Amino acid sequence: MERFVDLHVHTTASDGTDTPSRVVALAKKLGLGAIAITDHDSIAGVEEAVQAGKDLGVEVIPGIEISADYLGNKAHIVGLFVDHTREDLRPALDWSVYERAMRNEKIVGAMAADGFDISLETLNRLYPDSILGRPHMAEYLMKKGYVSSVKEAFDRYLGEGCPYYRNKERLSMEMAVNAIRHSGGIAVIAHPLQYGYSEMELCCFLQTGKDLGCAALEAYYSEHGPEEQAMLLSMAPQLGLEVSGGSDYHGSRKPHIFLGSGIENGLRIPYSVLESLKSLREN
Questions:
Q1: Cα 116 from Cα 107, distance rounded (Å)
Q2: What is the pTM assigned to this prediction?
Q3: What are the structural domains, with CATH classification, of the chain?
């Protein structure tokens, strides 16, 4: 019986709604061969997930997703097999924590000044174990009745071009990739079709990632259609990259995305993908 994996999963350690233990339990229930915990700019959920994996007999890959900069645009780099007990990721994590805190303060301060009943103290109390960000603010606005959904909160207030959006200062791709590699992990270019590049721009982006030390690209992804997936599966060997894949599961915060099976298009990522990545790491 073929086994499947999900190598892009978020928990309450960043902006997911399921605790690390709950995510592992769900993976067990679904019969997944392995999952990777890849919270945004955080490894806070890895230890709990790894322990839950040992208790439940689920293979858990320690990981992270770092928000980086590529020519002024965002570039998400997933790190797999990182050693979360080492200090090599610390400079990248410290920068992300500081930058995110400054951005949160600007956003919440502006909203409060305009009459919204919101404060960082309240948000931190409601989400004590999370890396606070715009998804939490959006959920809070929904709970307070300012909007009817998280999507509306982003569309009206928090999304790019909206009144309370604030630019994010990100690490360079080089720094993000180096942090992952120095921690013993392999760097993966996450959801490469989500950045809006033309075909030529996409090739340049992927080649830059390769040149900086990325080992794989995320060809299997919840919001890639069959043709997009086939294109990336074809591009990867041409660039000398392995392939990875994951749902980008966030729990109820993204209810259209399901652990292990992506969106409703029936995404399935064979265990052989993980085996190839393991071999790459060993070599």
A1: 11
A2: 0.85
A3: 5-89+187-282 (3.20.20.140)
